[in-house]
Structures are given as structure tokens and as C-alpha cells.
């Protein structure tokens, strides 16, 4: 067994050495080759949302830190965080919606809170870290728009745990 492993490793090393020996020096590789080494797939922007189908528009109103209300027509399935970011509202979403921060913390209008599916353990753990937690707090990246939430009102908290310089000015 041991001898077999040594032989296998030796064969692999020899093969990789040969492959390296066959690789041309970097200076000899045409410049266009390097350009193709990097991925050219689309960047996954934050705040990507779908256009609602005619007649299936849902409505959401955000109340910002300074008390201004903004209402948008949105599609079913988009998250509150994506909607906020797509419209340039002040929602950081530092972890990109992977439930690993609390910077997408929102306060849901109590009238709609029970219409949202219960938060799972991961969301509850992150909510515990949210600044200014309330009885109707949720993470915006974990709440998807549905017909039951049509007309929902969501307040953006005055601060999030990921403090920025602008929070102090
Ligand atoms: S964006 Fe990080 S938990 Fe929602």
C-alpha cells in the first residue's frame, strides 16, 4: 500500500513536472491569452430586481431614517433588501444577502409582520446583533415579497451595526 502510494505520487510529480516543462515562458504567451484567463461573466450586482408582470404588481413603502416614505411597485419573489438597494435607499447589506450580518435590518409594520414566514435560526442569530432590535424586526435579505405582503410598510432603522463615518455626521 505504502509502496503503491509512493509510486503514484512519483508518477504524478513526474507528470506535473513534464507539464510545467511544456509550458512556455510567460513572456512567450501572447497577451490576448492573459485577457482570456479572467472570467468575463456578468458581475452579480446587489439590488437586482425583477420587473413585475402587468396586473401582478405588488407594493412596498419604505420609510427612511428621516421619515420620508417611498412607495414602489415590485415583483413577487424579490427581497426587501434587493428592492431597497435597487432604488438607492440606504441599506448596506454587507454580506450580500447570505444572512451573515445585520446591516439589512428593517422594522416591519406590525400589520404585516404575521404575514411573513417565521425567521429561521440563522436569521434570529443575526437579528440578535441588529442595532435597535424591535418586536417586528426582520432582515431585509430574508423577506421576499408575496401577495400577502402587498402594501407592506417597512422602516429603515436609524443605524446599523456596521457603523460608517456618515452615521456620525
Ligand atoms: S445582507 Fe447580511 S444579513 Fe442580510
UniProtKB/TrEMBL annotation:
SUPFAM superfamilies linked to this entry: 2Fe-2S ferredoxin-like
Keywords recorded for this protein, A-Z: 2Fe-2S, Iron, Iron-sulfur, Metal-binding
Cellular component GO terms, alphabetical: mitochondrial matrix
Keyword Iron-sulfur belongs to the record: yes
Residue intervals of the 2Fe-2S ferredoxin-type domain: 58-160
GO molecular function annotation: 2 iron, 2 sulfur cluster binding; electron transfer activity; metal ion binding; oxidoreductase activity, acting on NAD(P)H, heme protein as acceptor
Keyword NADP in record: no
CDD domains reported in the protein's UniProt record: fer2
Cofactor(s) the protein requires to work: [2Fe-2S] cluster
GO biological process: heme A biosynthetic process; iron-sulfur cluster assembly; P450-containing electron transport chain; ubiquinone biosynthetic process
Family under the similarity heading: Belongs to the adrenodoxin/putidaredoxin family.
Protein name: Ferredoxin
Organism: Ascoidea rubescens DSM 1968
